[in-house]
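Reference record:
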Amino acid sequence: MIRKKNSFFTFIFSLIPGAGQMYMGFMKRGLSLMSSFFITIFVSVWLNVGPFMFIALISWFYSFFDTHNLRSAPDEEFYGLEDNYILFPEFMKDKAYYELQKKYRNIIALVLIIMGFTILWNNIFEIFRSVLPYSLRSTIYNIGRGFPQLIIGLIIILFGLYLIRGKKQELDQSERQLEDKGGSLE
């Protein structure tokens, strides 16, 4: 049941991402925020990629201020709010969602494969750790520890190149459209 609650407890619960929203009855919204916060921390620690913690910090601030914005909303606005997932909004039921899902299916599959590979790598290494000589064990450990970071760095670089290429194609297309109309960019 969505209703305004005690301001002291709202503040206390707002310190945990998503808990303040859940305390006020916005379960879907709170679950979205809590999940994004803790999954980001998990992935960041698991893959040993500290800069991802920045995303968790942003999630924490968003959740904190969202809780207080909800609490301070006028009664008619507050009670008119719907409880929706933030990360998975209602548009997911549309056809556009399925098109988006098809487009990014390969990226999601690649991420899952990389995660599975790192789990296997670390477990296999632990099995053979005691029988390997120290120098080989040290080399294999360093490769295994750095592999996820290398892959994530490569993905970030490729994504940046993709964004640059997309912007260049967009500029080229707008330039062609201007030329077709008889104008120029100069």
Summary: Residues 91-180 form one domain. The chain has a mean pLDDT of 79. The longest helix spans residues 134-180. The chain has two domains: 7-88, 91-180.
